[in-house]
# Entry
Amino acid sequence: MQPYDGELGDAVARAQRGDETGFADAYRLVQPGLLGYLRGIVGDDAEDVASDAWLEIARDLGRFKGDGAGFRGWTATIARHRALDHLRRLRVRPRPAVLEPDVLELPGPHDTHDQALEALSTERALALVRTLPRDQAEAVLLRVVVGLDGPSAARVLGKSPGAVRTASHRGLRGLARRLTVRDGTDPAPGGPRTRGEPT
Amino acid sequence: MNDEARGDPVALELLLADAMREEAVDTEGQRRAVAAFRAARDAGRHRARTRDRDDWREARGNGNGAGDERPAGHGAPGRGGDPGRGTDPGPDGTPAPAPSSRERPRP
# Structure
């Protein structure tokens, strides 16, 4: 549940009555999370894919039924379909990998835990997320960045809530481990819950 | 705080959400989306019929967790809402009202 879901539901209802200000409000509330999700799937092409998705959202708005949380799920589904179409087109005409190797450079051994975490810039967060298997990355992004609950994320991905819950847990554990391992502290086997002070 | 982030999945989630969500919205993108909205509205496209995939009322099993393992996205029985209303729009094509309130437990 996102803090803005009530406001979003209201904006969507106004838009469905024909009020373009309501639609603009819905855009402002949804776009940051949607763009973050798309960056995790299509990298630098996220803005173009989001733009395509919004054309479809704008066209089909009258078809949607639901509240603010439902609108997040509906729009994420549309965005995901546009992203997958985009990836299929790229496979037909391959381009260089989206991620440059230096983007994947994480803090060196001199970095402390705190530095690693404080420096979690958008770019590094994206690079970290993209090291995950795609099912895990998508589950984490839908839950954490778009703000969907488990069943909604499952519906977007066409999977069972249990499968998405597992993928999300594994993804978050993987991210925590990458953050921890990089400064030379071995995480406890099987989990990120290493609480020891840096040595 | 960072110590917590390392060991606490919730703190890590907050950190990630902060990093991945860009709050400054691109006004040109918004302008294009609103223009598309206006064009669709004026062409009457917003009266289109609701398809199963567009109905997100109670579509998440109401978050009660247990037993909610059916395939997502299909019009399975018990998908919630008002079964009598189905997914048809109202007589004038306007959307049915969303449930006024609903308790959904946190994931």
Chain B touches chain A through 65 residues (CB under 8 Å). Chain B has a mean pLDDT of 65.
